Amino acid sequence: MQTAKHLLFVTNDPQQQVNTLILARKLALVATQHGYKHSVISLDEFESSDHFDHVIIIGQQPKNLNIFGQNALSLVSIEDIKDDADKALLTALEHSKPANEWEQKPKQASNTATHFVAITACPTGVAHTFMAAEALQQGAERLGYQIDVETQGSVGAKNILSPQAIADADIVILATDIEVNTDRFIGKRVYRCSTGFALKQTDKAFAEAIANAQVLEQGKQQATTENKDKTEKVGVYKHLLTGVSYMLPMVVAGGLLIALSLCFGLNAAEQAGSLPAILKQIGAAAFTLMVPMLSGYIAYSIADRPGLAPGLIGGLLAAQLQAGFLGGIVSGFLAGYIALFIAKKVKLPTSLESLKPILIIPLLGTLSVGLIMFYVVGQPVAHIFELMKDFLNNMGTTNAVLMGIILASMMCIDLGGPINKAAYAFTVGLLTTNTYMPMAATMAGGMVPAIGMAIATFLARNKFSTGEKDAGKAAFVLGLCFISEGAIPFAAKDPMRVIPTCILGGAVTGALVALFHCELVTPHGGVFVLLIPNAINHAWLYLAAIAAGSIVTGVSYAIIKKNQEEKLLTNS
Fold first, then answer.
1. Count H helices, E strands: the chain?
2. Which of 258, 266, 420, 505 is the 20 to 30 A CA-CA neighbour of 160?
3. Residues labelled as active-site residues
4. What is the pLDDT of residues 87-119, one digit of tens each?
5. Nearest Cα to 58, choosing from 20, 91, 7?
6. Strand partners, 8
């Protein structure tokens, strides 16, 4: 540990000034307990470090570290202080080095980059998040690179990147289908791609990252190398999926609680004060938050934290105006882009700039979104939403079967990609209208590809390698869990045969689900939701539909797959 006597804590995070200062005070209190003298200032207040033995920067790394001279210097993230302030201080003191060694200058694109850090995140935070992380780790090992990967899944962030790892990295890879906070990477070369690209074309992802990564500047959270039109399209889609991602827990919790209330009888919840009534009320409360969460986090994806308040309030207004999830989508994009416009275009004196994210943007953004929702878009969107509900609730068997075929087929086309996620997001939104058949078709269709591949490896064992047979066993489990990505290893090797057979099986399943009038009240869980009474009606018919489509996929692929001769290695 360093023999420092006097510590200087320097806060530097324009987006979280108050929070950073509070955490700096917390760290200073720990320093006092360890017998250190200390001072706490912001980076703007810094003049000289001549009177200090050690400088500890809290938050983001300043662009110019030379101002700290030859003093011992450490960087501490606000996450580390939140987790364990005592450990954060001791680690900072043990891993200090002179300022000139910390200085990070953007590296030019070259083939010399060897150290990467990455974040992976998908809308549901279940399959693609972890599969992409594993692919990046395996790819880095194969190519001779170092990589640290943070996963932001459904249970929160895991393997959180340390300030040291970020500082040492040549390039940051953001393999994300939703928006993630990039404040930590300001000043670093950043490359963005989808989780699917990182998973299926890992080597190409590394090559493009080295060639095309751009330096992320303050206030420019979208680091990208794509052309403007394509970026805008991808951005809108990513914003929508971010909203869906944060909305999903509300849908799952609400749907399952309402289903549990039905375990006591179809009319048991009508008795006020009874357990079924309370369960239904809790579930309804979760459903009430669905549209505000969708809207709020679409806005958050666009404008970061300043967009959250206008987005949440706009979503609540959309629900009150009976505009449903369509109104939530509209209010989310309105709130996000209005907040972003105010943040970029409204200029204030430096002394008042800190008021912008906590006063100016929430006030003007909420006022603007509220007035637009009431006087411009609220009623028209509500009317469109009502027409859509009437159509869905009154469509005949033919239309229902056609919708089931389309939705289930979309789930099988790109196995967790944009088309798959678009179908899923649409049917999750329909849950707010109490329309449950599309969700049943979507989930059933999403289970078919992986289960179908497992069946194919069982029926035509001589056509598959040992590794593919093992992948088939894993795919079966993943399919039962509604993780269609289990079929990706097969689709990557033989897409021209795998994808059509998956679509064929998915279409059969979707048609049967609609024909059987199956309805599902929760958006995830695979076959395991059948263990919850009333989560789905006609449970056995639903299983039959899944089995039928999976068998169609498995048998058809087993027939058309080319023979593969395995070379047996023997010791002679």
1. 23, 11
2. 420
3. 122
4. 888 888 887 777 666 654 444 444 456 789 999
5. 20
6. 39, 55
